[in-house]
Amino acid sequence: MDSVNQTQLKMLKNALLLNGLFCIIALVFLENPITFVVGVIFGTTFSLLNFRLLYLTLNKAVHMPPPKAQAYATSRYLLRYTITGIVIFISLKADYINILGTIAGLVSLKLVILKSELFNSKEYFKNIFKRKEER
């Protein structure tokens, strides 16, 4: 298995763990947690779909000439955001899906990526706290 697939699998596992935590918190604190849990599942599903579409887009665009790659990447960018808009719209209209759960599911993968790729870097925090004279 190549490193890209391993990274995708790691992000998937961590997103599912985070969403499981969201669901447990909802079960404890919310009066009607089922709609929230359905929203989290709904948002997470489309978040993972968007993540996979981004991978496929970048993988294909790398092998194109620059002008074609830019047009292709832009069209796929608009497609991903359209899908996200449709997901939020459906969540707003459907009574059995909680909008906050959907947004939590959509954002969870982004939080996992930030945690695993940005906040795990010790150099990142060292650079934040360095004085200007030390640079």
UniProtKB/TrEMBL annotation:
GO terms for cellular component: plasma membrane. Pfam families: ATP-synt_I. Keywords: Cell membrane, Membrane, Transmembrane, Transmembrane helix. It comes from the Bacteria. It is a multi-pass membrane protein. Its main location: membrane. The chain crosses the membrane at residues 12-30, 36-58, 70-90. The keyword DNA damage does not apply. It is found in: Cell membrane. This is ATP synthase subunit I. It comes from Alkaliphilus pronyensis.
